[in-house]
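Internal ticket - ligand job 274, magnesium ion:
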Amino acid sequence: MNADNIIIFTDLDGSLLNHDDFQFKKIRSFIIDCLNCGIKIIPNSSKTKREIEVFSNQLGKQLPFIVENGAAVHNLDLLNINLKSNTNSIIFSRTIDEIIEIFKKKVPAIFKDKCLFVKDMKKQKQKEILGLNDDYLPFALNRGYSTPFIFNGSSKLFDEFKLILESLGMKLHEGGRVLNISDNCSKGSALNTLVNKLQNDLFLSPYVIAVGDSPNDISMLKEANQPCVVPLPNKNNLNNLKMNNILRAKQCAPEGWEEVIRLSLKKININMIG
Ligand SMILES: [Mg+2]
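stdout (structure tokens):
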């Protein structure tokens, strides 16, 4: 298989970036090697546009990317120049104001009362919950399509809440640190739209590798030719996920990311040097 036929859709926090300090220095040169080989890497994260731009700047490479749990894709031309549209983006979601309006009007109080939104917390608490400092906190709070929160209820109530949101055309996403309410979009559906576009518009059939660590990555892992899971420290997030061909890293991020990507590439006879 040609390396330029491979697309890696990857979660960032806890999968490629270390869960505690968001570092990826140890695998930066491996990521660059993959890109130089022609492999496409698409961050598919609950992070905002600005946060992923910060990551791209740290990497020193601009990438196509999917924001806020599948709400929008940006830099289409970097995936394939022929995908470029006027805006170079596709938006799959209503605005956060519309979503919050539906939440306020339609969600029963028994669930609403259990939701503690990050946007309403004191700054110190926001930093603690998101694990961010003063420099990066504003980028995480400036959300266009989703709102992070904590649920202070039983797991039974939590499951019911999920169903209520679904019945209202919204989704609840469970990341490594917080929950998110969003429109009816997911990492998997955004991935699917992009791959279908490549197939139907450009007659390409990419080989898809997906990397995740949390429940909000499952939809993406299910759509991949090669699903990969990176473990979180002290949290059994996806240990019970059953999939035939899943690859599981032994190490946490960032090293675990390199570990599963090397294994995935080896399975299709691409051996990265180093
Ligand atoms: Mg994650």
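Auto-summary: The chain has a mean pLDDT of 95. Residues 11, 13-15, 175-176, 213-214 surround magnesium ion (CB under 6 Å).
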